[in-house]
Automatic annotation (TrEMBL):
The keyword Transmembrane applies. Keywords: Membrane, Transmembrane, Transmembrane helix. This is Solute:sodium symporter small subunit. The chain crosses the membrane at residues 20-38, 50-71. The keyword Membrane applies.
Length: 87
């Protein structure tokens, strides 16, 4: 289990994908409820102010997006030079 991905796939890092950065920024902006009226706590959803629900959902979306990028879009196999080949 030294490798998590096949050597056949090219090296790919999602840090270079601008749409991923845009998605992360959008989720963060939605999660910080600066766009809501100051001091607003009503309506209540499930016994908590609605801005708490908005922040919790945005946090979950952020975690899902980062997890998806790491698990399915990132080829973490290093080149032979970095993998500790011949020294």
């Amino acid at each position: 289990m030294d490798q998590r991905r096949s050597q056949d796939r090219p090296r790919y890092e999602p840090i270079r994908v601008r749409s991923l950065w845009a998605g992360l920024a959008l989720v963060v902006l939605v999660g910080v409820p600066f766009y809501l009226p100051v001091g607003s706590a009503h309506p209540m959803l499930l016994g908590v102010p609605y801005w708490v629900v908005i922040s919790a959902v945005a946090t979950l979306l952020f975690a899902l997006l980062v997890s998806w990028a790491c698990l399915y879009r990132w080829n973490i196999v290093e080149p032979e030079e970095e993998a500790g080949g011949d020294r």
